[in-house]
Specification:
Layout (H helix, E strand, L loop, with lengths): L15 H5 L15 H13 L6 H7 L5 E5 L5 H8 L3 E6 L2 H10 L4 E4 L11 E6 L12 H9 L2 E12 L6 H10 L3 E6 L13 E7 L3
Parallel strand pairs: 1-2, 1-4, 2-3, 4-5
Antiparallel strand pairs: 5-7, 6-7
The structure holds S-adenosylmethionine (SAM).
């Protein structure tokens, strides 16, 4: 079974209700700082309990990328796995504590503290990955800027792959509209990182958008 931050069965390491338990009480998720070591401790607990943590990496690798931007990388959970599989990966997160933990855990991967909405690395990637509800943990109202920042780092023919929970105040239609604005075309959509069929009642979505040229 895939790792889950909540009590109920979800499909990645970013269950919103579970993540909010790691945030200072009363603070909106998008406007706070994280405790990277506490986040990683929870990831380690799932791994120790036998949960499979690499469904996101499996899906990304099915696209056969040479380069990946792990956007909202947290403590480098996915970046570490992609690097171990030979992918040239850079992790970016706006949270200093998350990046501190990532750098300690995965010293051979480059991690940057930056807001994706403002990011301009002057290069592009085969895949830009947003794993673990990143659009739900960005400051409210900045999702379009977040997606624009991700979109300008996608190579021609490259992909934006994003997974997030539905029913938490940010609609899938908003994500699709922002993707369209920056020239990304929907090419696949699933209900889980393991490619289960997406239906109207799905409470999680994994979308693959592509920059066609
Ligand atoms: C639930 S964590 C997921 C971490 C990691 N991707 C994973 O799956 O384990 C969401 C992360 O998105 C980051 N994030 C949200 N909005 C961001 C933004 N605008 N720029 C950079 N990072 C952002 C948060 O700081 C947080 O570390």
């Amino acid at each position: 079974m895939t790792a889950d931050i909540g009590d109920d069965a979800r499909s990645d390491c970013g269950d919103v209700s579970g993540d909010e338990q790691l945030l200072p009480s009363g603070t909106p998720a998008g406007e706070t700082s994280w405790d990277g070591d506490a986040y990683q401790a929870r990831v380690d607990e799932w791994a120790a309990s036998g949960s499979y943590l690499h469904a996101e990496a499996d899906l990304v690798c099915s696209l056969d990328p040479a380069t990946v931007l792990d956007a909202g990388c947290g403590t480098g959970r996915v970046a570490a796995e992609l690097s171990a599989r030979g992918v040239d990966v850079i992790g970016v997160d706006r949270d200093v504590s998350m990046i501190d933990t990532a750098r300690q855990r995965v010293p051979d991967v480059s991690f940057l503290v930056a807001d994706l909405a403002d990011l301009d690395l002057g290069r592009t990637f085969d895949v830009v990955l947003l794993a673990g509800n990143v659009p739900l943990f960005t400051p409210a109202g900045t999702q379009e800027a977040l997606l624009a920042g991700c979109g300008r780092h996608v190579s021609p023919g490259g992909y934006v792959v994003a997974g997030f929970q539905l029913g938490h105040g940010y609609e899938l239609s908003e994500w699709d509209a922002s993707c369209q604005t920056v020239g990304l075309v929907l090419v696949d959509r699933w209900a889980t990182w393991e490619s289960e069929v997406f239906v109207d009642t799905s409470d999680y979505v994994v979308s693959v958008h592509r920059r066609m040229s």
